[in-house]
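Reader question, answered in our methods column.
A reader sent in the components of a multi-part assembly and asked whether the whole thing could be modeled at once rather than chain by chain. We filled in our standard form and ran it. Here is what they sent:
COMPLEX SIZE: two components
ENTRIES:
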Amino acid sequence: MQTQIPVITTFISGILIMALFFIPRDPFTQIEQLTTRWYIIISGFALLLGIDSLILYHWRKIRRGDKDRIYSLILIISFFIALIWGIWAWYKYGGPFVQNSSYLWLFQNIYLPLDATMFSLLAFFIASAAYRAFRARNLESTLLLISAAIVMMGRVPFGGVIFVPFFFAFSILTGVYFLYIATRYVGLGSILRFFVGLLFIFLGISLFFPEFSKIISQFIPSLSDWIMQYPNNAGQRAINLGLILGSIAFSLRIIFGIERGYIR
Amino acid sequence: MKAILDFLTLIDRRVIYSVLIFSIIIPLFLKPSLPTRPTQEVIGAYNAVESLKDGDVLLISTDYGPSAYPELQPVYEVVLEQAFKKNVKVLLMTHWQFQGLIVGVSGIEKIAKKLDKKYGEDYLILGFKPGAVGVMVGLSEDFRNVFPNDYYGKPIDSYPIYKDIVGDDDVLNYKDIDLLFGFEAGATGDFWVQIVQARYGVKMAFSVTAVMAPGYFPYYQAKQVVGIVGGLKGAFDYESLAKKKGLASLIMVSQIPAHTIILLFILLGNVGFIIRRIVK
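And here is the structure of the entire assembly that came back:
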């Protein structure tokens, strides 16, 4: 009974919501509005549940005397300060985020810089990770590296001009590498690598000519836009289609009671 | 030789962090004037707001927090200025609880005060309701189903702006919205397109973070959204279109050396990597 009731409820709700989505006629639209209100109310309770589980999780860490319990204590104290301060600001100013509210001051001067700092740290981690991971190991990673560099420089003013010396150094380097590895292969593999190497060296040397480097620098922003509009879109669509098909399959498994992980 | 290769391939992360932080901070003091070439997606978003007329309704959804503030807030403030100058009625809501409220409310109050716009007449803050998709579907019937009261706790239909917006049917829903401008740092932007644009045909534009922008390009190409302002570069382009020098113009200066430094480190790493492979 404990499993059957949730599975039956899920089946009926799932089929009903699907039907409501595809039949925009009364009484289905009215039922949809009703279920929408239920959904909003349940979401509100989910927030309370989240707060409850967050506080309980950290409270248990403090009681157990875990090594990093000080952070849990800070979290709980901050939570209650924010809560009490918010209620007081509502009472005094008519809303916590209205102009001149002290709660707004708390957010703008403490929460906002903290949150922005946490997010900003990503720039440093990404820089370090890019340096370590972005290596031209094979043709695929080389293509990824070149396209990433083009997009990065195409997204900033003067990016095209800055890109030229980088492109020169990278082309010469990659060209030399391909010429070198061509000697390790025989037949078509060797010929292909030899010509790819020559192509890169030719590209690099051609940047010595101001006319050509000017064309490249002017071309970079357009090339960046092209990468975003075409190869990126194709990839995004493929990812989205895969995601949606996966979601549909998983939803059907839940609706028909094959997947019952949510009951446990 | 080994020492040189080690230097190139094993640069300490603290060195990378230090070089990067100086490359970001120093340009902030220089404040140069930078040229830009706005992309079609940004021009589309700008024109969508520019095409609004006196009395039209702009629904804004501020679904981001302080972490996305530098990328999205400049656009949000410029969009508000554009709308208020054209006497467009602005409705503000968020799916992002207090984070979306703080950036949304503080931004709209700042611009409204600057342009002498009155609450309840020129703009209305609907506030936050949990349930993202549920909220979006609920708004299709009547905004009062989801937001019976505004952010300050008064019934939304008690304000003059409500009576100005709704027609004779006395119902406010997506039919009354001329443009939806979403400021997105999460999944709610996708829901706006998949639920509201696809089902109710609402015209919409988005300002999104740089990491999210590639995911929105298919919507733009499929003409489901009229414009996308992606990341700081998009914000900078938007400010330049509006002929304003705001936060995005100020901090864009740092993005040039930051990108260059990252690319330089990648190049150094590859020089060491390729030489090492050849030497082996």
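What stands out: Residues 2-26+256-279 of chain B form one domain. Chain B has a mean pLDDT of 90.
Send us your own complexes using the same form.
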